[in-house]
User: What shape does this take?
Amino acid sequence: MKILGMDSSGLVASVAVVENDILVAEYTVNHKKTHSQTLLPMLDEVVKMTELDLDTVDAIAVAAGPGSFTGLRIGAATVKALGLALDKPVVSVPTCYGLAYNIWGTDKLVCPILDARRNQVYTGVFQFVDGKLDVVVDQDAMGIDELVEKLNGFGREVVFVGDGIPVYGDYIMENLKIGFVFAPAGFNRQRASSVAALGLQLYKEGKYESADDHKPIYLRKSQAEREREEQLKKEG
Assistant: This one.
């Protein structure tokens, strides 16, 4: 079984191909270029380097959100176009689930934190049970103070992943009362290989959709939408 994985939910752009339990290829770039510039060229390079016939792919897994609104829209548009053109289903992998999967097999809690601005993070709490990802707290947007309070309440060691670490790392170190580590390079940002590997598991469980039905998971309104609503309230 072959899964094409894509992640453009943050600054990282990543494309991977997983076949059964083997990572065939992964192309990841964490640099200041727009995903509209990088995602399709990266896919093209993976196809060329692995001599991949996209018609042989069983499904396309995508990091569906939360994350960058622009990045999510680019990723959604890309997988919808590919899925429709190839007549392949789409596996919608929540971004925090994919990030947690980077730390597969740990006996610690895994806590992805994505910077959502205004002292908020997109986050969730996960663990691995019998080799499968188990949701302890489902992904949501919350204040970093609320998250730290929740984690202190669990009383278990935690592994943090995500781009929120540089932003909120000092706050975590000052306020978290339990053991924790920040995941190292190679594991602390979005990876399409994790999206594809988890996507494969979800596909086997029948958790997929048509390309036409795929929509990003935003969790909250964009800053522009919030500012527009605030302006309308003032005018009203």
